Amino acid sequence: MAINLDDFVEQVRDANPIEKVLEESGIHLRGHGRLRTSTKHDSMKVRTDMQRVFWYSQNWNGDVFGWVMKEKGIEFMEALEILARRAHIELPKFQAVNESEVKRTRATADVFSVAASVFHRWLEGMKRWGSLRILMPWLMHMIGHGPMRRSMNQWWGFRVEKLRINIRI
User: Fold this and answer.
1) Bridge pairing between strands 44-47 and 35-38
2) pLDDT for res 118
3) Distances (CA, A) of 109 to 96, 100, 103, 116, 137
């Protein structure tokens, strides 16, 4: 039976409480409740409700996977295997990755990234030349940041009328 990797990670995380894994690593905790402190390192705090370690003197924080990776100097999948073995959970066969789907998704993301970059440069150029203030109400309306009270023709007519008045004065 194939299982989703995210579901398996959550299952392994739930089966390995951070305080128990730290105890096995030689880090003893004092206190009770949701906030505990290491007896070895005063700057190491453990939030049992969040299942996270905060080690302030090392400027590091992480979950049970991050701790095993830091302690043993290994990658995530190795930490996942170690913690699954510790919890007596059998490693499943993960679903095969469809390479063509991955390539298609990456290509789509690349296209959107390029489009966003081009649009950003276009807006920067308009801002530089002062044209952006003319288009801003329309842009705000198009991206849903407020209703336009006038139609585009009324708005453009209003701008032209205002320009004529400004030129005469």
Assistant:
1) antiparallel
2) 84
3) 22, 14, 10, 10, 28
Domains of the chain: 2-94 (3.90.580.10), 99-168 (no CATH)
Please state the three-class secondary structure of 20-79 as a single string.
Answer: HHHHHCCCCEECCCCEEEECCCCCEEEECCCCEEEEHHHCEEECHHHHHHHHHCCCHHHH
The pTM (predicted TM-score) of the whole model is 0.56
Residue 121, pLDDT score: 81
Q: Which portions of the chain are predicted below pLDDT 70?
A: 1-2, 95, 126-169
Query: Which token pair is 88?
Result: 């007596």
Do residues 49 and 34 make contact, with C-beta atoms less than 8 angstroms apart? yes
Which 3 state secondary structure label does DSSP give 2?
strand
